[in-house]
Amino acid sequence: MSVQSIVTEGGEELVILSRRAYDALLARSGDEDAEDRMTARLTKEHLAARAGGTVTFAPDWLTAAILAGESPLAAARRHAGLDVADLAAKADVDLEVLAAMEQGRRAVSPTVIEAIARACGVDVALFLDQDRAPAPDEPSTSLPGKPRRRSALRR
After folding, report:
1. Looking at the chain, which residues constitute the CATH 1.10.260.40 domain(s)?
2. Does pTM surpass 0.90?
3. How many angstroms separate the most distant Cα atoms in the chain?
4. Do 77 and 122 meet the contact criterion of CB atoms below 8 Å apart?
5. Which of 2, 33, 108, 147 could crosslink 152 through cysteines, CB 3.0-4.6 Å?
6. Structure-model confidence comparison of residues 86 and 70, the more confident one
7. CB of 4 within 8 A of CB of 16?
8. CA atoms of 9 and 109, how far apart (whole Å)
9. Please, are residues 85 and 79 in contact by the beta-carbon 8 Å criterion?
10. Under CATH, domain 59-155 is a member of which superfamily?
11. Which residues does 23 contact at the CB level (< 8 Å), separation at least 6?
C-alpha cells in the first residue's frame, strides 16, 4: 500500500490513502458500509477477471463460500473433506481453538495459517489479505475468521 503524507503549515501531518486502502482500513475496524464497498469491489474485480479468462486469486469454491458469509478456514476444511476434529489433529491445533478461529472469535497466527493450509492441501495465499499479508514475525492477524457483519450470516 502506498501512503503519502502532507505536513500542514501548523505542523500537523495528514496521511493520504487510496480509496481502496481507506475502505479496507474502515472495513477492518468494523464499518459495515466500507465492508460492503470492499465486497462489491472485490466481487466486481473477480468476475471481470473470470470473464476476461485471466487467472484469479481465489478458486470458485472459496469465492462462493466467502460471498455466502462463510469463514475461509471452514470453506477450505470442507473443500478438503475434513471435519473440525480431523483438521485440528492434522494441523496440530487444539480443537476448541480451531473452532473459535473458524467462527472469527480468535486471532490466527501466520504459523497456524500455514499449518491449516498444508493440512487442507491449499495454497496459504488463499488465506492472506492481498493488501496486507502478515510478515513472518507478525504475532497474529484477524484473518481469516468469519465475517463480522451479522447481516452476512442471515439467510
Report:
1. 59-155
2. no
3. 60
4. no
5. 147
6. 86
7. yes
8. 42
9. no
10. lambda repressor-like DNA-binding domains (1.10.260.40)
11. 34, 37, 38, 41
